[in-house]
Amino acid sequence: MQLHGWGRFPGVTAELLEPPTRESIQKLFGTKKKHGPMIARGAGRSYGDSSLADTVLSSRFLDSFLEFNATTGIIKCGAGVSMGALLTVIIPEGFFAPVLPGTKFVSIGGAIAADIHGKNHHTDGSFCDHVRSFSLLLSSGEIIQCSRDENRDAFLATCGGMGLTGIIINATISLHKVSSVFIKRNSIVAKDLDDCMDLIDQNEDSKHSFAWLDCLARGKSLGRSILHLADHCADGPQQPKSRVSLSVPFGTPRFFLNRLSNKLFNNAIYEMWKHRKNPSIVNYDSYFFPLDNIRNWNRLYGSKGFLQYQFVMPSSSAREGIREILKIVSESSTGSFISVLKKFGNANQNLLSFPTAGYTLALDFKNEPSVFPLLSKLDEVLLAHGGRLYLAKDSRMSEDVFKAAYPNWERFVEIKKTLDPSNTFVSHQSMRLGLTQ
Amino acid sequence: MKILIIGATSAIAKASARLYAARKAQLFLIARNEELLIELKEDLMIRGAHSVAYYVLDLSNQKNHGEALEQARQSLEEIDIALLCHGSLPDQETCENDYNRAKEEINVNGLSIISLCTELSKVFKAQQSGVLAAITSVAGDRGRQPNFIYGAAKSMVSTYLQGLRGKLLAHKVHVIDIKPGLVDSPMTSKFDKGLLWSTPELVANRIVRGIDRKNHTVYVPGYWRIIMATVCLIPEFIFKRLKI
């Protein structure tokens, strides 16, 4: 069947396996192995080709909660459980997910494979920093337990390892205790990039922060942005109201998102936030998942889909580097519809995890021929400034750019060879990046 | 709320049980695989169920239906809702050429449900209350070439439920026929999925809503009512030539 990631590019023909139980997944491996190269897929929310291969194994039916200790806040669940389902279960007990991405529709398995980050990376690190252990099914059919103490190499390679070491079956996660799931938000206008980065640096105490950036602004207002700072309210109700959700039923025409509509949209957002009252109290859902109530918003980019370009640059070079990138983008014929800037805390020890101390900027581009040379140009600037791209959003990076930016790749390949000697776990992305043959 | 779910480890049943668990229901589950039942029990408890008990039973064997329901009745004391979810999707070709296979499939998808309904009717009549909901299929609305064995079994149940609904009316028992269209579940893993397919979660959502509203026949999603009405309008001399 036809499969693609969240960016709807690239699309591939693949055999999709959806085993209903853990046993039926295990039977696919070891001596009874019938399938060729394959990769696990959770909710299909990585943007590019990370979860695409000739055979794709879905974890959607591994969606059970296995253990929950409401005193210690430690929960064990199947890899296919979604972040949204997790929140529904833990919020009434006074807990919250330690790290939340921009959508609640990701799976726990995917969150580990991509070692996702949230708006609180500078204070709490990435998702895998809160994963105590997980069960990993190897291509031999054996299931091993991985944690920082047990099978440590497998743990460090699997966290952020894009599914290339095995199939994550279930995971045990430490939750955060929160006073309220309502969020106190302050939104500050920044007139340009320097202003924005100064404000970010000054407000590092704020738990959940990110800046929305108008990437079409040029000249003096290059990098004008709205910085959102948020903390949990001290008290208040634990149960939020449900939101109305809309849906994009089919791919919009190609011209729907163009330079003009982009400009209008970004101006409207900027003007809207300029006049908002501070602080405001909002539901966690609308703060963390602003796009989730427009189901299938990825269809807005038309049938050919879109590409996300998310990179991180070390603090020392980020100001200069990000300015250069914004300049190139704002002068190009295309533009990013939604651009988000945020500061990361320190990197962890996982071999292929994306976050590292510095600033990360996420840009999205409609898939059109002119985007590819533009992004290659950005790659050069990125490497020159010591930055790297996020694998969960990548669909086009070259092997050279990847290997230059992720120095631990050789160690990763060594560990993968011991865990997966038959080279069973392979994605289109891992082939492109030279991580597998 | 006390709920009995039969065929509890099927995708639709599981999703429905989770919705009731979130409402803090007391659940009693019946299914074939004990390991899966144990896992589901824990999952439902974490999702908020007040209590979960289960009984292991191969539902194709009618002999133990009475015993299983007696266990459920004792465990729950009173049954507010009984949801019948078990079934299988047979290979039409095989069944057409092998009567014994056809008989097995009709037994699982048709007769076993009638057997359970017979026993449940007694319980509900004694209680003078309750909701009996069974999952049939849009396939029962007209015999179509690609799956008329399955369709025949489901249509038998639908016809049975229509009659039973009237019989139980005097006893304040409500009967619901749930007719899902194409559902993307392990039962249909061999099919290529297109626009008309819905998820077990959506189907479960509509089942629970239908039970809340005391609907009679619930098509899931609702547009299947229109699709099937249209299919039923096609004159037979044309329909017999269609392979839909």
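Chain A has two domains: 40-178+407-432, 182-397.
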